[in-house]
Design brief:
By secondary structure, this protein is of the alpha/beta class. The protein has a domain of 107 residues. Helix 6 links the parallel strand 4 and strand 5. Helix 10 packs parallel to helix 11 and helix 11 runs parallel beside helix 12. The two termini are 38 Å apart. The mean pLDDT is 88.
Amino acid sequence: MANCPVLDLPVEITTEIFSNYVEKFHDILRTDTGPLILASVCTTWREICLSTVSLWASVLLSYKFNAGKAHLRFLESWLSRVESYPLDLSIWKAEATLITFLSRYSFQWRTLTFRLQSSNAIFPKDKIGKIPSLTKLEIFGSSPAAGSAKLTAFSEAPSLRELLLSHTSLDDISLPWIQLTRLSMDGNLVDCMKILDETPNLEILHLKVIPSLEQTSRYVTLVRLHSFAFHFESDGALLDHLTLPVVKTIEFSDLGSRGVSRLLALGARSAWSPRSIHLMRMSTEIFVRSLHSFPSLEQVRIDSIPNSDKLILLARLLTNDADFLPALRSMTITFGGLTTEALSAALAEMLATRWHGNREGVARLKSFYLYSSRGRRLEELRAREELNARVHPLLEEGLDVVFANKAKA
């Protein structure tokens, strides 16, 4: 590869490029991507790959990995390149043979993700060994079969701070709950409350609550929690059982009228003053009702407003009601309708009013982002150009405004 300019790059830059190319949790059996294909290009790249241990330290073992002798020998060769670097492991099929093999490296485990199929016997505590470096644990899959032993392999993990649990209850697993600071969990009301009762030091909590007829008498106060996300249960029954006095960032989806009432009661009970909110998959009326109740909000994100009439309603509230989001400095909206003349006028007036900040007690808006899911139509592009022309003087003065297409997932 003579006269190839890319080979003249400093090793540090090439290493950084490689690190961005190799995705986290790389499937080691794939031959069309990852460090192996980079190493096959030329001698120089091979030397860089083999000397950059981090390229090999984030490993995905997919369902294609069968834990037979050939695959285990390949895995052993792969991990030999990691040396003593921390390991991030994602295991789609947690078989006893594979876990026993990986336990040789348990001292290096930093992140472990696995899918628990039927039995906890694949993680025998006496064979796993010490896991002093494990900071993050993710467990997916259905609860173990009736009669399965409780999973205790991770009960002594001194560095563990972050946990993701899916369909796993307190009765299924033993963990150092009190030291956790970040928890993502899905489950029913009873199982969620049992775990929250054991995790008083949480700072970040993401809940996906599965509707259930079961009830609980548990009530939990999380005095360190600053970020709270709650999804899927429209009635919000779990919210009745929480007090969150220092929350600053909140995220909610799918709440109905009763759920919003419980959210507002949680806010009153907690005497919180959130600064940022993200609302999804809720009616515009419920959006507005929620936002009216949080005058401390500085950042607002709404997904999604369905049509221009609903967005005009919101724009007029921001224009005419000084008590509606008086602290607002940044707003992001995804919008499913068309940009009509009436909407352009309402948005332009709102932005001018909030940017100039002429009202006492109302903060100056700094940024407004509107993403449209219908922005590729010719008439919509023209309407957006007209809207940009209306607000151009504000942009010249320094207001950060973006009207753009909604990015595809």
